[in-house]
UniProtKB/TrEMBL annotation:
InterPro entries: Peptidase_M76_ATP23
Enzyme class: hydrolase
Keyword check for Ribosomal protein: no
Chain segments annotated as transmembrane: none
GO cellular component: mitochondrion
Protein name listed in UniProt: Mitochondrial inner membrane protease ATP23
Keyword Glycoprotein: no
């Protein structure tokens, strides 16, 4: 997909319920921190992000480096989501990537998760996979098994990208707790 098509899909996706709700939760969480919500800042300080301030952009991503295989990634500072247009093939994939990265943005910006720690990243990867790539499966007991396996394998692949040889162990250590954590919304991963 080219960057122009990606940007068109991104504009549509940002009007969809799941991405919109995640962006609202990020903005509310940051506003709460700025009003003395316990992050150590003085009351009345400005939030890290202004409303609508989380930059989301499509670009052609390189074939080397930490994002070599990524469809999208969270960058900071300043906080932003980069969608790799050259690795996305449809509007559905753009939406999955946006939801996935917005879960990471929530974890990093609002919940204070340190994404450069293997277990913390694994925790966020499980949550992001459950909310995005692995969210369309039926909730029946049989499909729940496949959905959990999808979240586990997706999280392992993603975590191994930054922590080669350690990702699977980190995912295993946090999987059950992370899979149950549906912040900011208890929406069943829909």
């Amino acid at each position: 997909m080219d960057c122009q098509t990606c940007q068109k899909h991104l504009a549509e996706v940002l009007r969809a319920e799941r991405p919109r709700r995640l962006l609202e939760a990020i903005q509310q969480g940051l506003s709460g921190k700025a009003k003395g919500g316990g992050d150590g800042k003085e009351e009345g300080t400005e939030p890290v992000l202004e409303p609508g301030g989380l930059r989301l952009v499509c670009q052609t991503c390189p074939r080397q480096g930490p994002a070599a295989a990524a469809r999208a990634y969270l960058e900071a500072p300043p906080p932003g989501v980069v969608l790799c247009a050259n690795r996305l093939g449809s509007r559905r994939e753009v939406e999955e990537a946006v939801v996935h990265e917005l879960v990471h943005a929530y974890d990093y910006l609002v919940a204070g998760v340190e994404l450069l720690d293997c277990q913390a990243l694994a925790y966020s990867e499980v949550r992001a996979a459950r909310a995005a790539e692995c969210s369309k499966t039926s909730r029946s007991l049989v499909c729940s098994y496949f959905r959990k396996n999808c979240a586990r394998s997706t999280a392992v692949r993603s975590t191994e990208g930054l922590f080669p040889g350690k990702g699977a162990g980190c995912v295993d250590a946090v999987f059950n707790a992370a899979y149950q954590d549906q912040r900011p919304h208890d929406d069943g991963g829909r």
